[in-house]
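Researcher: We're reviewing a set of sequences before deciding which ones to prioritize for further study. For each one, I'd like a predicted 3D structure that I can look through quickly. This is NF-X1-type zinc finger protein NFXL1. If possible, include the structure in C-alpha cell form so it fits the rest of the review sheet.
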Amino acid sequence: MDGEVLKAAMTSAGGSCLVCLSSIKRTDAVWSCSQCYCLFHLQCIQQWARDGERQLSLLSPELFPGQEVLWSCPKCRLEHPMNLFPKTYFCFCGKHTDPPVDLWLLPHTCGEICGKPLQPECGHSCVSLCHPGPCPPCPKTLNVSCHCGRSPAMVKRCGVRGWMCGRVCGRELDCGLHSCEQRCHDGQCGECGEMIEQSCVCGRESKQLGCTAPPWQCSQVCGELLSCGCHSCQRVCHSGPCGGCPRSGTRTCPCGKTEHDIPCTEEVATCKDTCGKDLLCSQHKCMRPCHYGPCGQCLQMAVRGCRCGKKEKQVTCSSEYLCEAKCSRMRQCGRHQCRRKVR
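Model: Here's the predicted structure for NF-X1-type zinc finger protein NFXL1, in C-alpha cell form for your review sheet.
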C-alpha cells in the first residue's frame, strides 16, 4: 500500500484536491484515480470531466471524424470514456456508496475486506480492509519451480510465480537438434543460432547456414536422366521426382492444328497449314506456313496517324509514322513557337 496515501487518509484532512486546491476533509465525497490513486473532490472531478467533454466537442468533425469524447485524470492523465463519468461517491474498495463517517475507520472506507483481484493476477483477492492506494502483494506462498524446471521447487510468494536458478536452460529448441544455452529464463527460448552444413534440395552443393534456415536451391540444372531414358531433367535444383519426359505422349505441330503420337526422340513436323497465330499488333494473324520460332513483325499495310495527329499515311502495321511537320505550340515565354520537328 502507498504509505503517503495511507498517511494522508488517516489524518482528518486527506491532502488537497488538485482541481480546487482545497483540503479534502473526512466528510467530503471523493473520487480516486484507478492508476495514480490520487484523491479529488467528487464535484471537482465531475466539473473537470464536463469541461474536458466541452473542449473536445469544439473540434471540427471534418478534421477529426469519429473523435471519441474522453476525459483524463488531472494528475496522471489517464483517459476515461464518458460512460465512466464519476456520478457516485464510493468507498475505496467500491462495495458501498456514501460510506458513513466513522472515527474508528480510515476516511472514505467501509471497514470491510477489500476483495479486489490482486495484481498481477494470481487468482487470489485482497484480504486487507478497505484501503486507499494499490493492494499489497499476494501474501500466500506456493512451491514454485524455476523457469527452466531443472532446480527443485522453492517456497515463493504467490505474486512471484517464476524465478531464475542461474543454471543453463537446456530445453530442446524448435529445431529438435540443439538445446538452449541461455541461463534459466522466462518465456520462449528463441530460435536456434547454431550454424550447420546444409545441402541444397538436390544435394549437389552445401554451405554453412543457420540450423533453422529453410531449404535452399542451388543454381545448377538437375540433369537427372528421365524415365524415357533419352532426355535429362532441365529443371533447376529441385526436390522430389523429376517427373515424366515433357516430349512424351501426344504432341502438336508448332501451330497447334494437328496432333502426333510419336516417340520423344523425334521432332514433330510442320503441318504446311497457315500458322494463324496472333501477331504482336494484336490486329492481324501470321500468314506464314506452320513454322517453329517467333512469327516476326506484322507486314500488312495499315493507315497510321502521325504523333502530332496532323497527317495520316499507309505504312506497315508494325511501323510508326512520323510526319515532317514542325511543332506549333508556344514556348514558355509565350511569344515564340517551338518549331521543332515532331519526331
